[in-house]
Design a protein that fits this description.
Blueprint lengths: L2 H21 L21 H5 L27 H5 L7 E6 L3 H13 L5 H14 L8 E4 L4 H7 L3 H13 L8 E3 L11 H8 L3 E3 L2 H4 L3 E8 L4 H12 L4 E8 L1
Parallel strand pairs: 1-6, 2-5, 5-6
Antiparallel strand pairs: 3-4
Helix pairs in contact: 5-7
The chain binds zinc ion (2 copies).
Amino acid sequence: MPWGRTRTALVLRRTARALLDLVYPQECIACGAGLPRPPASFLCDDCRDRLPLIGPWQCARCGDETGPFAEGASACRSCAERPALPFRGAVAACRFEGPAREMVHRLKYSGDTRAVGWMAREMALRLSRAAWAAEVEWIVPVPLHWSRHLSRRFNQSQLLADALGESSGKPCLPRLLRRTRRTPAQVTLDFAARERNVAGAFAARHPDRLKEKTILLVDDVMTTCATARECARVLRAAGAKRVYVAVFAR
Ligand SMILES: [Zn+2]
Ligand SMILES: [Zn+2]
């Protein structure tokens, strides 16, 4: 084959590969390992095996994983140790560790949205097992401060809430809550500091529309419950009848 044609073939092959990489990202979303082309999943086999999915034994109140023999709120360590929660119930899809933690970080800090649909489906699966899910009228994501929303260009909680809204047919209303001040990331703080960090950081926008409504609050991660607690408190103070919570990781 003449040199010119070999070179053209090489350039074409490289261009095709670059285009394929754009369409199908090649790395595992959690560990960065190479994936087969086209990838069957956004996770490599190893990370899929290590996914810390929460099974059927979950505290109905806070969504934390409990043992198979736990019954009642006192059996949940988180609920026994913490003040009462202003929300009625919660579900979580994964423990916040291993590939689940990496997936959340890739979504939040790199804008890698490949896993959003799957994350929302895992949340929806757990919602379908919760007796209260049918009561939910509106879905409200935990808001970012406008300046953080502007720099990140999206709110990861809203992406999850939108997907849950689409699959359930319930309206997602991201503007009912707003974050009134920019707060340091909760991950850097201990329990008491997290509570202080979010105290008074949220406000309800349309209290008239919240009256007597049952709200599903959606966030990507809930660890100490400080953010969800404060959002639920504000929603209840504005007149919401009940607040429930769905998060991807706990
Ligand atoms: Zn992996
Ligand atoms: Zn609990």
